[in-house]
Design brief:
The complex is a heterodimer of chains A (106) and B (154). With 106 residues, chain A is an all-beta fold. Chain A is 0% helix and 54% strand. In chain A, the strands form 2 sheets. Chain A has a 5-stranded mixed sheet, with no helix packed on it. In chain A, strands 1-3-6 form a 3-stranded antiparallel sheet, with no helix packed on it. Chain B is of the alpha+beta class and 154 residues long. Helices cover 25% and strands 36% of the residues of chain B. In chain B, the strands form 2 sheets. In chain B, strands 1, 3, 5, 6, 8 and 9 form a 6-stranded mixed sheet that branches. Chain B has a 3-stranded antiparallel sheet with strand order 2-4-7, with no helix packed on it. Classes of the chains: A mainly beta (106), B alpha+beta (154). The interface between A and B is medium-sized, with 34 and 34 residues. Strand 5 of chain A pairs antiparallel with strand 6 of chain B, so a sheet runs across the interface.
């Protein structure tokens, strides 16, 4: 089961710079650690995080295994128009999760 | 002599075992050189200047599994002049890359926060790239008392 936590304001003034925070539950297994049987645990990470505002990409981040488990990202965005902010995570083993929040820009 | 053959095999085995055990160790670590190579891949032959970038992370880290890190870059985020990308590198984790972020004028300000893993006490470098192709950097030295990636906690 995937769990996502998003922290974003519900309303903003037009042109205001707002902070967006996103956290997702994921092991971020590096592929460098041996497990209890002595074999290397295969890599399983999220490779890319993207954020879009009404469908237009505003932020993108490529992860490496050096990103901690349960990746957390915070960044800023200019409140341009009312609508939907979508967050998308994709990675190894076909991992793909998308979550959206609504925002009211006045 | 009956002992000769056995001795040779044992010696070969020991040399072989030593090679096998040394090789993966040597290749499974990023080095300052590997970091420099990874940075060169991003920056090319352009000059990297100090300043504008602030790299914020605790100087003493008790647990390398989740280290809070913030990169902030001063300056405008307009269509004509903005920060296009922020790259973070390390010198002693298994790989030199930490993350590559792409941003633009729609971000309003170039500030990114995340949490990273650190396998050892080392130097972290953040590089910001402007849309005009300039590069600015900042670095931080950290001491890690409990390294990440040592054991499977599950």
């Amino acid at each position: 089961m995937t769990q996502v936590l998003i922290n974003a304001p519900k309303t903003a003034k037009k042109g205001e710079v707002i902070e967006l925070k996103a956290l997702i539950l994921h092991v971020m297994e590096t592929g460098f650690r041996p497990g209890t049987n002595g074999r290397i645990i295969p890599r399983n990470i999220i490779e890319r995080f993207t954020a879009s505002w009404n469908g237009a990409e505003i932020f993108r981040m490529d992860f490496s295994p050096a990103i901690a488990a349960n990746p957390f990202v915070s960044f800023f965005a200019v409140a341009s128009e009312s609508g939907k902010i979508s967050f998308r995570w994709t990675g190894d083993e076909g991992f793909a999760v998308e979550e959206s929040v609504a925002i009211d820009v006045a | 002599m009956p002992g000769t053959k056995e001795g040779t095999t044992r010696r070969t085995f020991i040399v072989g075992a030593a090679l096998v055990s040394v090789l993966p160790l040597a290749s499974a670590r990023a080095t300052p050189e590997a970091m420099a190579a990874a940075i060169k891949e991003v920056v090319g032959d352009n000059a990297i200047r100090e300043g504008r970038v602030t790299l914020d992370l605790p100087p003493l880290i008790e647990n390398g599994n989740a280290v809070p890190l913030t990169v902030s870059v001063e300056g405008p985020m307009s269509e004509a002049d903005h920060i296009k990308a922020i790259h973070v590198f390390n010198e002693k984790n298994p790989q030199p890359h930490v993350f590559d972020a792409r941003l633009g004028p729609r971000n309003g300000k170039a500030v990114i926060g995340t949490r990273i893993k650190l396998g050892d006490s080392q130097k972290i470098v953040a590089i910001a790239e402007t849309n005009k192709g300039e590069f600015f950097s900042a670095s931080a030295d950290v001491i890690v008392t409990l390294a990440a990636c040592l054991e499977d906690l599950t």
